[in-house]
Specification:
The protein is mainly α and about 290 residues long. About 75% of the residues lie in helices and about 0% in strands. α7 packs across α15.
Length: about 290
């Protein structure tokens, strides 16, 4: 029986790994195709000769992107949102998760229920827009930061992690005269680096990919985020100068496609560089933070 179980487990693992390999391969090959087209010559792309290896390599498309002031402005706006919003969101999330992790909190079940309720039901777009306008945040970068400073899902993940910390550590700190603030900042937060790194990664990626909020709350083109500028380049071409295109042998459509692919790479590479630094915390933070509910 054990032999049959072992064989079924092996077959299951082969199937799982095969699916994962196919999934990852599709992503990697698509990404390689985007890179190859962005680096290839116009003639090779027009003939359909480019697959995963660039042909007639040139960097004209990247030069056009680098020369766009709107791209650099969007980078600055996005980085400001990440630098300002991530620490604030992590801090407020810890402030919400810490009391919910205590067994002696009065009304803990009701508060948790109300918090979880917001994960499935929300007021909607119009009330949120009215709130942003009432708070004088409309057409400012803070409109992309303040409304989403607390995520119920992140609160539950960090709360579950806090519950896994031995109560004896807190009791020892209380005996030494520590109050709630010192217990949080000197014990819980230093021991919670895996889950905080994981949630920080989610927050950073969320801010980086934030697109809809910028379309709703931002009207000043100088305040556009990177995803809005990327959308204009890829879908409408509104950020591609006609003067620049006409300077490239009048192959406007072809050069436009090369610029679109180059813009995708330019806006994707930076966020990919963040993952290696947080990857060692990722699995541990997700598993420990999600197991206990």
């Amino acid at each position: 029986m054990n032999r049959n179980k072992s064989m079924s487990e092996r077959i299951g693992m082969v199937i799982v790994y095969s699916i994962l390999i196919l999934f990852c391969s599709s992503i990697i090959l698509a990404f390689m195709n985007v890179i190859a087209i962005s680096l290839s010559g116009k003639t090779s792309v027009m003939r359909g000769e480019v697959t995963f290896i660039p042909k007639n390599v040139n960097f004209e498309a990247y030069k056009v992107i680098i020369q766009k002031d709107s791209v650099w402005s969007a980078y600055a706006n996005t980085l400001f949102i990440i630098i300002a919003g991530t620490p604030l969101q992590i801090m407020l999330t810890c402030f919400a998760a810490f009391p919910l992790s205590r067994t002696d909190l009065v009304g803990k079940k009701f508060i948790t229920l109300m918090l979880v309720f917001t994960m499935w039901f929300s007021a909607g777009m119009i009330p949120m827009f009215l709130l942003v306008r009432t708070l004088k945040l409309y057409n400012t970068l803070w409109a992309l930061i303040v409304p989403g400073l607390i995520s119920a899902y992140n609160v539950m993940i960090i709360r579950n992690f806090f519950q896994e910390i031995p109560s004896s550590l807190e009791e020892s700190a209380r005996i030494d005269g520590c109050n709630d603030a010192r217990v949080l900042f000197q014990i819980f937060i230093p021991l919670s680096k895996p889950v905080l790194a994981t949630v920080s990664l989610w927050v950073i990626v969320g801010y980086w990919n934030n697109y809809m909020s910028a379309l709703i709350y931002i009207r000043n083109p100088k305040l556009y985020t990177l995803q809005v500028v990327l959308r204009n380049i890829v879908l409408t071409g509104s950020d591609i100068s006609g003067e620049v295109l006409s300077a490239q042998e009048n192959d406007e459509e072809l050069l436009s496609d090369c610029i679109k692919y180059a813009a995708i790479i330019v806006t994707t590479i930076p966020i990919m560089c963040v993952y290696p630094f947080l990857q060692k915390y990722f699995v541990k933070g997700v598993i420990v933070g999600a197991v206990k509910g």
